[in-house]
Amino acid sequence: MLQSRALVIALILLLSTTLPEVHSKAIFERDRRDWLVIPDAIAAYIYETVNKMSPKVGQFLADAAQTPAVVATRTFLIRETTKLSILAEQLMEKIKSLWYTKVLGY
Question: Taking the mean position of all CA atoms in its chain, how far away is CA 56?
Answer without folding.
Answer: 25
